[in-house]
């Protein structure tokens, strides 16, 4: 997915936020417009990583560990990693989730595909009524 596709899929209500972050050099200085994205990502306790074990478990685990390492390197705090079958509905509902693996490899993502409005079939997925064809895709 290209950044432009992501921005378009986010909808009209998010365009002002994207414009501010993508087009301005410095963070806005007013309290209402202050930079929040770095602070949000720095709150690693709010995030979890869930990797698929149905297929490609080793590859998905490795990818999850690499993402965990990125958080640790950048924010000096580790994000918890869960296997798809061990994460609870409460954990999924209470955290920002980084899913590793396609729906057929990650049972947690497969269970959340409908609530996320994710229509996936092999190398083709539909997000926000837009069909995207990719051989490799980052699911998050």
Could you characterize what this model shows?
The protein has helices spanning 3-10, 15-23, 37-42, 57-75, 89-94, 107-112, and strands at residues 47-51, 80-83, 96-100, 118-121, 124-127, 130-133. The chain has a three-stranded parallel sheet with strand order 2-1-3. The protein is globular, with a radius of gyration of 16 Å. Helix 4 (57-75) links the parallel strand 1 and strand 2 (80-83). It is of the alpha/beta class and 140 residues long. It contains six helices and six strands. It is 39% helix and 19% strand.
What is the distance, rounded to the nearest whole angstrom, between the alpha carbons of the first and last residues? 11 Å
Overall pLDDT metric:
75
Strand content: 15-25%
Helix content: 25-40%
Helix-strand category:
alpha/beta
Number of helices: 6
Unreliably modeled segments: 28-37, 135-140
Using the alpha-carbon principal axes, give the shape: globular
What Rg is obtained from the alpha carbons, in whole angstroms?
16 Å
**Strand numbers in spatial order across the main sheet:** 2-1-3
Let me know the number of strands.
6
User: Biggest sheet, open or closed, and with what strands and sense?
Assistant: 3 strands, parallel
């Amino acid at each position: 997915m290209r950044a432009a596709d992501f921005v378009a899929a986010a909808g009209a209500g998010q365009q002002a936020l994207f414009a501010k972050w993508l087009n301005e050099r410095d963070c806005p200085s007013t309290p209402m417009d202050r930079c929040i994205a770095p602070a949000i990502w720095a709150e690693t306790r709010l995030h979890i990583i869930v990797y698929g074990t149905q297929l490609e478990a080793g590859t998905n685990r490795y990818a999850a560990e690499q993402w965990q390492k990125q958080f640790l390197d950048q924010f000096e705090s580790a994000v918890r990693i869960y296997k798809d079958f061990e994460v609870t509905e409460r954990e999924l509902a209470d955290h920002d989730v980084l899913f590793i693996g396609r729906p057929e490899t990650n049972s947690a993502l497969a269970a959340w595909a409908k609530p996320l409005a994710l229509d996936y079939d092999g190398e083709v997925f539909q997000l926000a009524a837009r069909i995207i064809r990719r051989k490799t895709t980052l699911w998050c």
